[in-house]
Amino acid sequence: MFTLLFSFLGGVVGPLLPNIIGLVRDWQDNKQELLMMEMRLKYAAQEHLWRMEEMNARADIEEAKVLHQPQSSFGVQLIDAADKWSESTWGRWLITPGFYLYTILDIVNGFVRPTIAYCAFGFYMIYKWSIFEIAKTQMSTVEAINSTWTENDWVVLLMVLGFFFGQRAAKAVLGGSTSNAKPNA
Description:
By secondary structure, the chain is an all-alpha fold. The protein has a domain at 1-51. It has six helices and no strands. Helix 3 packs antiparallel against helix 4 and helix 4 (91-138) packs across helix 5. The radius of gyration is 38 Å and the shape is elongated. The relative contact order is 0.05.
């Protein structure tokens, strides 16, 4: 009886067996293709992050190059032009005062930002010192110092420190980038 049952099942399932094997093979091929596409998408996303990191690094390098270039002086360019014009009727007598004028302007230009920063800091310290002196007449020195230093002073201090040191610290902490991308996400 079992022989008849097995032969009947073999006769019915036998011709379908290549189709079933083909379906299983197609299913596995599709599964592998989906895995390959998923891996390609992950790699493409990672490659995009790598390219963004490379562009950020190149921009930082170019910025550092520009920042460390010596400042070109118009006065020096003017005196170089005077050497070319030395045979002309203008001569050095016209170019030399311009050279000195632009040299002085270059020096003054170099002092503008530091002077403003030092003046702002100086005014801030004078203001804090005056508050401290007024508070010291009414309370002890330690209490006067504590009452002089407020939360706003912390905000100003952290803002200045963040401006001067924040970008480099963020790059060091985040692995060389200030982007929000996670390296192994």
